[in-house]
């Protein structure tokens, strides 16, 4: 049995044969906390790790990053979503507004208020709906 492993940072390939492959830790060997698997994958700041994808040239990658940040929640996700409100693609801005509503943090209100001035009607409308649902007065 043999497999090849690629180190993402260096790009170096390592071939693992039977005995070396069997020596790798399995999921039973690791003591992971099931409450926060993202911390295990991305470290202590998963929102920052996902936010890097917001700079990708591919629209679909940015869209997936916005959705993931909405699911992550918290102030870090709100901070990471702010640049998506300036994306050149209105769909991404609309998804960012939806994600801010999903996050549900008070810190998202300021960004939702900014989205009321977006050039796209669907972005403005969704921001207004979310602010109304939260009971926030729009200016």
Strand content: 5-15%
The count of DSSP E runs of length 2 or more, i.e. the number of strands, is 2
Helix content: 55-70%
Which stretches are low in confidence, meaning pLDDT under 50 for 5 or more residues running? 18-44
Give the ordered list of helices and strands.
Answer: EEHHHHHHHH
Written description of the protein model:
The chain is mainly alpha-helical and 139 residues long. The chain has a domain at 45-139: Leucine-rich Repeat Variant (Alpha Horseshoe). The chain has 8 helices and 2 strands; from the N terminus they run ββαααααααα. The chain has helices at residues 18-23, 37-42, 46-51, 59-72, 74-81, 90-103, 107-115, 121-134, and strands at residues 3-6, 13-16. The chain has a two-stranded antiparallel ribbon. α4 runs parallel beside α6 (90-103) and α6 packs parallel to α8. The longest helix is centred in the middle third of the chain and has 14 residues, at 59-72. The chain is globular. Mean pLDDT is 76; it is low at 18-44.
Note the main attributes of this structure.
single chain; 139 residues; mainly alpha; Leucine-rich Repeat Variant; two-stranded antiparallel sheet; 55% helix; 6% strand
What is the structure about, briefly put?
This protein is mainly α. It has helices at residues 18-23, 37-42, 46-51, 59-72, 74-81, 90-103, 107-115, 121-134, and strands at 3-6, 13-16.
């Amino acid at each position: 049995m043999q497999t090849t492993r690629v180190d993402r940072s260096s790009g170096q390939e390592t071939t693992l044969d039977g005995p070396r492959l069997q020596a790798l830790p399995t999921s039973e060997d690791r003591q992971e906390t099931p409450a926060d698997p993202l911390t295990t994958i991305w470290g202590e700041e998963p929102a920052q790790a996902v936010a890097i994808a917001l700079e990708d040239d591919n629209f679909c990658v940015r869209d997936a990053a916005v959705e993931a940040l909405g699911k992550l929640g918290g102030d870090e996700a709100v901070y990471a979503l702010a640049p998506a409100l300036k994306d050149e693609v209105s769909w991404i801005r609309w998804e960012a507004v939806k994600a801010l509503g999903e996050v549900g943090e008070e810190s998202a209100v300021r960004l939702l208020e900014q989205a009321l001035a977006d050039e796209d009607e669907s972005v403005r409308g969704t921001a207004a709906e979310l602010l109304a649902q939260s009971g926030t007065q729009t200016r």
